[in-house]
Amino acid sequence: MLAALSVLAGVVLWGLGIYSTGNRHFFPAWAALVPLLALGAVSLLRRTAPRVGVVVGTVGVIADQFTVGNLGTVLIFTDLMYAAVVYGKPSMARRLPVSTGLVTAAVTIASVAWLRTPQALMIGVITGIVSFGPALTGATLRNHREAAEAARLRAEQTALLAEMDRHQAVVAERARMARELHDMVANHLSAIAIHSTAALSIDSPATSREALGVIRENSVEGLAEMRRLIGLLRDAGAEQEPAATPSLAGLDALLGQARVNGSASGLDFVLRDERPPGQPVPAPVELAAYRIVQESLTNALKHAAPGTVRVGVSHADGLLTVRVESPYGDRPGPRAPGSGAGLVGMRERTELLGGRFEAGRAGSVWQVRAVLPAEEKAVTG
């Protein structure tokens, strides 16, 4: 449409005898239509082949100066120059404003040196308006477009990164919730499964009454732990963990409960706490150590042979070491099934804090050993 209007305007001006160069021509008046039609045709390629448009346009506007001249030809050339910068390759968009600026300066100097009149400056001004002006306008528009596109891409990348962070946070929170749920409830459910199996397999009123007492105690404690976890999930705005968060001070009570639960399996539990008094441990490390001991005792209740389960805790050289050793071998009587999630959870807890975790058989003993950084700087840094 723009090309057709420009050509039509040029033909009308030519028909009215309105020329741009006056008497400075070397060809008949109709020759001015040749550059006009050539530039009008090539303007159809202003987006698809901008380099061709610049070359043909430059040749055409120079040739127009040797005819009576047509304003339509000049207008089409300015559009071709603008389109070359906006739609051309980045290298062309960088070169054209510089090259047209140099051409404008050169034409201005040459005109003043040749004609030696103040009016000679107008030749340089017109050259700048026809070539440098459209190129500079196109470069400005292209820079704005590229800046807007870069801003859009940054916004999309920021949104994508935010979504990835949100997804990772959700996955991490689900994993944490799964570990907490397993560690809090598995111990009680394992005791319930073992004692209910014992009650069903041993036809003795005393045994059944004792098993039912253990089952009731573990059921109540398991429900209390579940209520605590549900409270944590509902209290999404809480800034701190509740005061009831387990700590290493509760290991005696934990082993006392394990003794009751393991009485039917011939297990005894011994705690050896070698921590020096008055040496604090970061809360995340203390909670992880407690959960590792709790899960190790649960595994002992499920799988250990009759004997003594030994729990050791020590704190030295900025490291908190937790050791649990349980008898390994054939176990008579009822057993509770295991899924292997306990070992995975203990390893995850240890590695999240930057510690080391080992678990495996050593002769007739199954060993669990976790070494955790016990300095606040190592945990929070």
Describe the protein.
The chain is an alpha+beta fold and 381 residues long. It has helices at residues 2-16, 33-42, 50-64, 71-87, 90-115, 120-201, 205-234, 251-261, 283-303, 341-352, 376-380, and strands at residues 267-273, 307-316, 319-327, 356-362, 365-373. Strand 4 and strand 5 form a beta hairpin. The protein is rod-shaped, with a radius of gyration of 44 Å.
Global Rg: 44 Å
- Strands of the biggest beta sheet: in what spatial order? 1-2-3-5-4
Kindly state the percentage of residues in helix: 55-70%
Gross morphology is rod-shaped
Instruction: Supply the helix-strand structural class.
Output: alpha+beta
| Count of alpha and pi helical runs | 11
Number of strands: 5
Strand content: 5-15%
The low-pLDDT segments are 238-243
User: What's the story with the biggest beta sheet?
Assistant: 5 strands, mixed
Order of helices and strands: HHHHHHHHEHEEHEEH
What's the pLDDT, averaged over the residues?
81
* Alpha carbon gap, first and last residue: 66 Å
